[in-house]
């Protein structure tokens, strides 16, 4: 059963920075103490788990260790390089936890790139280590510029701003980066929501009177002369002419449509 409630796994360590190395070891040991087969922090199991969190230079360093563990698993006669967590921990500290903060800061700047981050974010991280390096402002300015993205560098070429100092370069690069991101957002297509098409369907069906089953069927196509004369007398329609009973002198043509 894992007892790590509220304790997250340690972040991967890339082999850069002694402070990050110390944080990784501390976080790993706290997390491992909540895992049944790791909690004692003895034997080789914690070693196998720890190297799975390594990447970059740290992963390269750990590759021979992983190969040794694999060989030992296949053949017990192959001795483990680090049979215990304490042995691995000592080797890790010796390799990644330097006692020289200047060297550590220089290594951090060497590995730091803007990448997909904003210039503001890149600059904030850069400043965390720049003061410890002992580099001059000109050197720091050049190192900051070298690791900017190409799109920011291309825009800086056309800028009239004075970027000879680190502070000025950061300010202008941040302005350019913000402008580029704004233009990208403006060019994104506006997504419209198309309303769904609803077909009208009447709630009530047309009323149709029930036919009397006892009613007599009438053939509308068969009309006798007697029936025709009776209709003419009642309606006043004779050969397409209407004769008014009020005024026998007035007549006018009528187009009549009779539906039965």
Total number of β-strand segments?
3
Q: Write down the overall mean pLDDT.
A: 80
Summing up helix and strand content along with how strands pair, one would put the structural category as mainly alpha
Segments where pLDDT lies below 50 for 5+ residues? 217-221, 247-260
End-to-end CA span: 88 Å
Shape: elongated
Helix percent reads 40-55%
The amount of beta strand, in percent, is under 5%
Largest sheet: 3 strands, antiparallel
Radius of gyration from the CA trace? Answer: 46 Å
Q: How many individual helices?
A: 10
Widest β-sheet, arrangement of strands: 1-2-3
Secondary-structure element order, N to C: HHHHHHHHHHEEE
Organism: Collybiopsis confluens
Pfam family, one: Retrotrans_gag
Protein name: Retrotransposon gag domain-containing protein
Domain Retrotransposon gag: 49-147
Q: What does this protein look like?
A:
- Helix content is 50%, strand content 3%.
- The chain is mostly helical.
- Among the domains are: 79 residues, no CATH class; 87 residues, no CATH class.
- The protein has a 3-stranded antiparallel sheet.
- α5 packs antiparallel against α6 and α7 runs parallel beside α9.
- The C terminus is likely disordered.
List strands and helices in order, with pairings.
Blueprint: H1 18-32, H2 45-51, H3 56-74, H4 85-96, H5 101-111, H6 119-133, H7 137-146, H8 150-157, H9 166-187, H10 225-235, E1 237-238, E2 241-243, E3 251-253
Antiparallel strand pairs: 1-2, 2-3
What is the gist of this entry?
It holds the Pfam family Retrotrans_gag. The protein is mainly α and 260 residues long.
């Amino acid at each position: 059963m894992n007892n790590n409630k509220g304790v997250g796994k340690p972040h991967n360590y890339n082999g850069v920075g002694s402070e990050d190395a110390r944080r990784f070891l501390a976080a790993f040991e706290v997390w491992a103490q909540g895992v049944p087969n790791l909690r004692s922090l003895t034997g080789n199991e914690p070693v196998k788990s720890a190297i799975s969190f390594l990447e970059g230079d740290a992963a390269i360093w750990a590759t021979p260790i992983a190969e040794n563990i694999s060989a030992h698993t296949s053949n017990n006669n192959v001795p483990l390089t680090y049979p215990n967590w304490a042995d691995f921990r000592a080797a890790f500290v010796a390799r990644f936890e330097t006692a020289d903060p200047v060297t550590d800061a220089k290594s951090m700047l060497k590995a730091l790139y803007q990448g997909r981050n904003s210039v503001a974010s890149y600059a904030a991280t850069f400043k965390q280590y720049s003061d410890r390096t002992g580099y001059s402002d000109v050197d720091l300015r050049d190192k900051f510029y070298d690791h900017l993205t190409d799109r920011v560098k291309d825009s800086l070429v056309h800028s009239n701003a004075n970027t000879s100092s680190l502070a000025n370069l950061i300010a202008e690069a941040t302005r350019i980066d913000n402008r580029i991101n704004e233009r990208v957002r403006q060019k994104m297509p506006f997504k419209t929501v198309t309303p769904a098409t609803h077909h009208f369907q009447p709630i009530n069906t047309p009323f149709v009177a029930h036919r009397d089953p006892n009613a007599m069927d009438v053939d509308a196509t068969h009309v006798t002369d007697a029936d025709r004369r009776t209709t003419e007398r009642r309606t006043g329609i004779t050969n397409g002419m209407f004769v008014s009973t009020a005024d026998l002198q007035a007549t006018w043509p009528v187009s009549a449509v009779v539906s039965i």
